Amino acid sequence: MSGLIFAIELAYWQQTLIKVLVAAVLIPTTALILGIVFLFKMMSWMQSRMGPQEAGPRGLLQLAADGLKFLQKEDIIPDRADRFVFKAAPVVVLASTFLTYVILPAGPDLVIENLPTGIFFAMAVSSLSVVGVLMAGWASSNKYALMGGLRAGGQLIAYELPLILAVMGVVIQAGSLSMQDIVWAQADGSMFGFGGLGLPFVITQVLAFFIFMAAIQAELTQPPFDMPVAESEVVGGFHVEYTGFRFLFFFLGEFATAFAFAAIAATLFLGGWWVPGVDPNSALANVVGPIALFVKIMVVAFLIFWFRFTYPRFREDQLQRFAWKYLIPLALANITITGILVVVL
Amino acid sequence: MPKVPGMVKGLGVTFRTMVETLKPSGGPATVQYPHEKEEPSPRARGVIALHEENCTACMLCSRECPDWCIYIEAHKTLAPPRRAGGKPRQVNQLDRFAIDYSLCMYCGICVEVCPFEALFWSPEYEFSEVSIADLLHEKERLGEWMETVPDFEAYEAGSEAKGKKVPR
Amino acid sequence: MTVTDSQKMAYVAAQAADARVNLQFETEDGMTLNMGPQHPATHGTLRIVAQLDGEQVVRCEPIPGYMHRGYEKLCEVRTYPQVTTLINRIDWLGSFANEVPFILAAEKLMDVEAPPRAQVIRTILFELSRLGNISLFLGDLGIQLGGITIGFYAFRDREFVLNQIEAATGGRFHPNFDRIGGLKDDLPKGWIAETHLAMERMRRLCDEFEELVLGNEIFQARTRGIGVIPTDIATSYGMSGANLRATGVDWDLRRDACPPGLSYDLADWKVWTHPDGDSYARTWIRLQEVRESTHIVDQLLDSIPAGPIMAKVPRIIKVPEGEAWVATENPLGEMGYYVVSKGDLVPFRVKIRSASFNNISVVPWVTRGVFVPDVITILASLYFILGDIDR
Predict the structure, then answer these.
(1) Looking at the domain C79-356, which fold is it?
(2) Are residues B90 and B23 in the same domain?
(3) A309 near B CB under 8 A
(4) Would you list the DSSP string of A79-140?
(5) B30 at the A interface (CB within 8 A)?
(6) C172 has which bridge partners?
(7) In the prediction, which pLDDT does A210 show?
(8) What is the per-residue pLDDT for A4?
(9) Phi–psi pair at A310, nearest 5 degrees
(10) Higher per-residue pLDDT: A318 or B168
(11) Is pLDDT above 60 for A214?
């Protein structure tokens, strides 16, 4: 089946080039989609507004116009900033997002790189962004940016743990770290002997799913965990001094990461590209797969942004308490129970 | 019945509002401004219109204005007598009547003190200019706004105030 | 443009004053965080200098004065009818409420009283401006705490109140409608029915606020026990209004010392108090006040007597010699005018007592040892309008 699409053997550098191009196109596109659909449209509807209407049909090109606007803006670097670190920080953040896209499977063959330790790799590279955020906060030579950066550092480190621990439950149940194998495990699973719907892990791992959702909310620094960028407290936090395309990088990074995390959540808990009724071994799965994954991602992203537009934010110490006192013990308990059940059953 | 957690209720509120906004019967609370416009109430203090024939250049408005943004210039002239055979009357001929809308506080004192009903409020609000200096409007422009002045509304029950009329 | 010497001197003096404050804070240990004059949480141009230890506030001082407009002095060169246009802009969200105490003081000096119809309509408009003011507080508190959605709801429903104010007075924000001896004009036809509908909307906003913000566990964690002000501290700092009632003091000028000219006695209503004195209590009190206010308006709308709208006052107003102090319960707290007249067209001296200045002076006391986000919570829940601080 793998010969179906990649029938032509390409040289390694050709493959790499194609993969890089695919990721480079995917990131801004997905960020734009999420930004338009949720940040502009859904948020507006939830606030009795219509959102942008002028740019493009029904204002759907507004974010593209905003992106162009950012490119035209003057690139301001504060006088006392550490210039190199200041310039490098957005790139580091975007690089972490870029690397996460590598392992996302959109079909049985549609994956940029099917790593055997896929989810482990995703968790590892997504933590990279904290380095970029800290760099930005430190290099801006601004007290608000510093506070925001340090808050982000503390927060991202605290929420890496529940995130990984929540994933562990799924990994134990699937018996593999590979994203593709996790999808296959859900497709092959059965509920009480009925295999027609497979077994999306959200059913067995409800607790892990909620912990995962809470943790990615914090990873994305979105309300209720948006203290690092809280505009009423630290006025935008680590990106307060960034203008123009550097700010655009942070913005793209935020939304592309939201898309990537939603994709991971969809893959881990909702069955990824697999749809009931479509034979995962057929070529059709490669066509239906991306659509199914996209729909599932949108469902997860809807949840993420719904929380974002509804809740007020925590305080920094309350956030830490929430992570260490509730999420991590719960996640550990989840792993223990899953482990016992997997061994017993 | 167990209490619904507040966080779940909050999600319900936002979701309800989204459905309400998207429903054809509901719709958003906003209007798409340049395409659709909101109708201000007839009393809305948008811009001051001048009915030039009534102005006698008595300078009351100019004097009572809290930030002195009304400029009036006039000269004395002789008007034909009211009755045949009478003496010609001396009247003030208005040369200039200008309101500086960059200073105006839209308080309405000038309209209120005018003893000859020459000034009226119009709910017209689209008179912004690119340059602040262009906001000084002369009597020609002020006179054009007279068309947008709505009739005075009837009063609520129990009122003893006398209804007024807009000269057309 | 030429700069005069006095302007230069004033600039130098202002720079020196700033430098002094900065020096005072910079020479001590820890980090100094300068919030404002341009900061999203300061509702305008309040400057707050906080000395931090990590994220904990060691010392915090509000520095008002960046928007001082000199109203007390300006009033001395304006005739009595002109003064109301100025003082509209003190608390710009509840502007009709600013006019009332001044007009009442002038009425007291001239010994005239508005006819009953004018008194009731005046009270209704007073309460509408309270609704316009406090409903924005409900939205703003949400925005300050990160839940921006309620802010849009507040703006959406507040519009109905503003429309009613506009329909009656002509001005959404600066009505300039109150006159010595009555009101400028009578109500337009159909206003009463529409105001009833607007009150319905406000009550719906209150329900939404309760579900979306007040009942939210995160909001409660952010506000309960934060910024606790005991009763004796509140009274010694001269706090008033909802901030004082949130500390358990049952004191409302509308009920306890309603000046003649307002008819609160015609309605049946209740003064709410809360024993806690924290940010949550202040929010809760204001929410109840909005609800109570809608009920007051509803009752008064049904009991507007027929009659004239203006008492007999001369066309050119000269206020006889004397002094008068009138204070009313404004949206932000006690607001009073001390008017001294020498029998001229203009007041000789006007002293304005606005609530926010006293309410905000408790900030250094209450922010000791709290975290930076709590400073935002406390500032938002104390609820000040910058124009009301600086005047």
Answers:
(1) Cytochrome-c3 Hydrogenase; chain B (1.10.645)
(2) no
(3) yes
(4) TTS-HHHHHHHHHHHHHHHHHHGGG-BSSSS-BS---TTHHHHHHHHHTHHHHHHHHHHHHT
(5) yes
(6) none
(7) 86
(8) 45
(9) -105, -35
(10) A318
(11) yes
